[in-house]
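Look over both lines before class:
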Amino acid sequence: MTKNSSSRYKYIFGPVASRRLGISLGVDLVPSKTCTLDCIYCESGQTTCKTTQRDEYVSVQSVKDELNDLLSDNPKLDFITFSGSGEPTLNSGIGEIIDFLKLDYPKYKVALLTNGTLFHNPHVRKDILEADIVKASMDAGSEKLFFDINRPHQDLNFTQMIDGLVTFRKEYHKEYAVEVFFIPGMNDSSSSLKQISQILGIIKPDTVQLNTLDRPGVVGDLKPVGPSFLEKASLYLDHAQILHYSGLETKLQNIDKGYSLRLLSTLKRRPLTAQDISKVSGIGLAEVYRWLEELIKSEKIEKKRLNRGIFYTLKQ
């Protein structure tokens, strides 16, 4: 890849202001939307390729080329994060890419956002041991809720997933977080909280993060749980952290070439508000609105209203 060809990036996106990780450059290792689950709340949309088969879904060398192109300009980042439009650990080359970052760009911390459903596989666990932070998801305390909320591939089962999360804890000695995503009327009852608490007590993560709907999900009528419930849950689950939207004010440098095309790449994977885009890019809000309206007129993006405001996403 030639220098400053940012408009041609296919596998890296952002940076975005993350509630979890600050200023985060995303790395997407699977085609949209390839995943082991089809979660009803997923901001990336409905899973079109539900699988448990690991493969080199996107070229490892191409990902390394794109990272070399961008990181050689020494951008200010808090994390390089494996996430995006599917389950990153499905890519059999994730370990090679993590090793590449640790060897060639050791100044950057590496995070993995994963649903944790493949942690029963020892090869997966070995591949991700060098990540600085691993954040796995666990939204259900029972098999029924696991199927209702996460809609897993037929080869997965709840006990297998929990066993994998527990085994990884024993092997991984860096920061291990488990995120619980709450949906009203599904996993917010007292009995659900008790079941989740019992399982977390077995996994023993370093941190527990509580989340709820912030962007449009797959099921259109989903609502977030209220702040009072999250406060209650944080006390019940050993003072877990509530993920508040941070509205980071950081301005990024050396990443603005071809930004319009890169914005589209980001919106494909993660809906954003105009304020999100302004704050993470340093571009004035009025200019961002003008820019977004042009993209809407050209039918490249669309907007959806949610509690936190109007979100922009790639037009389906």
In short: The CA atoms of residues 18 and 99 lie 23 Å apart. The chain has one domain: 6-270. The chain has a mean pLDDT of 86.
